[in-house]
Amino acid sequence: MAGAAGRVVRRWYPHVLRSSLQVPALQLHMSKTAMRASQKDFESALSQVKLLKDPGNEVKLKLYALYKQATEGPCNTPKPGVFDLINKAKWDAWNALGSLPKETARQNYVDLVSGLSSSSDSSSQVKPEADRKQPGYETLVVTSEDSITKIMMNRPAKKNAITTQMYNEIMLALKAASKDDSAITVLTGNGDYYSSGNDLSNFTDIPPEGIEEKAKSSAILLRDFVDCFIDFPKPLIAAVNGPAVGISVTILGLFDTVYASSRATFHTPFSHLGQSPEGCSSYTFPKIMGPAKAAEMLIFGKKLTAAEACAQGLVSEVFPDSTFQKEVWTRLKAYSKLPPNAMRISKQVIRNREKEKLHAINAEESRVLQERWLSDECTNAVMNFLTRKAKL
Ligand SMILES: CCCCC/C=C/CC(=O)SCCNC(=O)CCNC(=O)[C@H](O)C(C)(C)COP(=O)(O)OP(=O)(O)OC[C@H]1O[C@@H](n2cnc3c(N)ncnc32)[C@H](O)[C@@H]1OP(=O)(O)O
Q1: Are strands 265-267 and 304-305 parallel, antiparallel or unpaired?
Q2: Which ipTM did the prediction report?
Q3: What CATH number has the domain bearing residue 325?
Q4: To bridge 279 with a disulfide, which of 250, 335, 350, 388 should be the other Cys (CB 3.0-4.6 Å)?
């Protein structure tokens, strides 16, 4: 870690060298509260600092001084000569910290980086998302920046329930993202839900050919939709911002990383709806969490909290809801800077040997569901929801 920190300082210091011959007096504002940043917080601040825009020479000197104090303690090196302006400025900054304890310096470093991150987050919002979004989508907001393509389900008033149009738009967005120059792709939801799963009114749009034809075309749509996730070539991350239901949960087994807000829940009430598992969950869930836990979810509809889903391996990490967006996007921006080809190839190595099997499972699950959708159990459950007699 000392090496990494050294690189941070070396990376920033040339700016001071080039542009600052006059160094303002340092006024260090010590945090009176929370004087105990952990080593982990400090290391995370050291990583975060690399993502910040140039904060100016004064702040860079503060960071330098706090880093030295936190890692080496009070300045005890000889004072550089009067003409060695840069090193003298650094020495002065460090020396000005006097006998400040290492822990306090560490805390002040963490506080300073955190303040810089929030102001750079807000100042980097140059254009509102509405101006940056890709055209052609009605149910999604799709944006590409910082080497990240973000696909956001955007029917917040309907809890991001997935209509036929949304299935088709997600497939289009994934196909476009697989070819664009982004390194990673993220699926998330707008509003308080991640997604309430299949929009149950999809089942009301019966064509003149009848209900069997509807079940058949729905099975084809489902199969094509899930195939897009099986085949997606780049790292695919779910940022589960709130409760997730049905197919929005099952396909998580096909993602590479799943981050969840502490407010998220994971619910697959298939039996309640007279349906059966899809999204390859009949295979991925037992593999991820073991058959007994998978059965509780997929057969009995047990709803998991974010912490439970994480303990069972469906979720990679849970973040407090209040800091979810900030922490997840900071993490993802750092990941998106990794070499994209290496990430794609690593994903292939991890996933490719399963692909054929997953396609076969998807086909089988879709075939079984096609029959289920014609059953009385399913018809009654859907009617009960649509006539407001039942909710999950
Ligand atoms: C077609 C091919 C592919 C098929 C693949 C199959 C997938 C299987 C599944 O995904 S199964 C899961 C299906 N989802 C559900 O059963 C969820 C149904 N919704 C609810 O139970 C509740 O809405 C809730 C618990 C998600 C949220 O309850 P809450 O009280 O907080 O909010 P409201 O019920 O008032 O919802 C706000 C409006 O949103 C509409 N809505 C929410 N979810 C759905 C949905 N899945 N389908 C259709 N509509 C949904 C809800 O009706 C409200 O609309 P309104 O304001 O017009 O009344």
Answers
A1: antiparallel
A2: 0.99
A3: 3.90.226.10
A4: 250
Same domain assignment for residues 300 and 347 = yes
Ligand 1 atom closest to 202 (CA) = 1
Q: From 153, 165, 196, 372, give the residue whose CB has the most ligand 1 atoms within 8 Å, as the site to mutate.
A: 196
Q: Do residues 348 and 219 share a domain?
A: yes
Mean pLDDT, 10 residues at a time, over the chain (392 residues)? 40 34 32 61 87 80 93 94 85 93 92 81 57 88 96 98 98 97 97 97 91 96 98 98 98 98 98 97 98 98 98 98 97 97 97 96 98 95 85 75
Let me know: does 202 contact 218? Beta carbons within 8 Å.
yes
- pLDDT at 3 (0 to 100): 41
Domain that holds residue 281: 140-391
Looking at the fold, whether 223 and 257 belong to one and the same domain comes out as: yes
Is 266 part of a structural domain of the chain? Answer: yes
Q: How far apart are CA 341 and CA 131, in angstroms?
A: 30
Instruction: Give the global pTM.
Output: 0.73
Ligand 1 lined by 159 (C-beta under 6 Å)? yes
Give dist(CA 200, CA 119) in Å, integer. 42
State the pLDDT at residue 122. 55
DSSP string, 124-147: T--S-HHHHSPTT-SSEEEEEETT
CA distance readout (Å), 124 to 135, 144, 199: 22, 14, 35
192 and 330 in a single domain? The answer is yes
Q: Are residues 104 and 228 in the same domain?
A: no
Distance between CA atoms of residues 92 and 115, nearest Å = 23
Q: What local confidence, expressed as pLDDT, does residue 1 receive?
A: 36
31 three-class SS: coil
110 assigned to some structural domain: yes
How many independent structural domains does the chain possess?
Answer: 2
Interacting residues of 216 by C-beta distance below 8 A, sequence separation 6+: 370
pLDDT of residue 11: 40
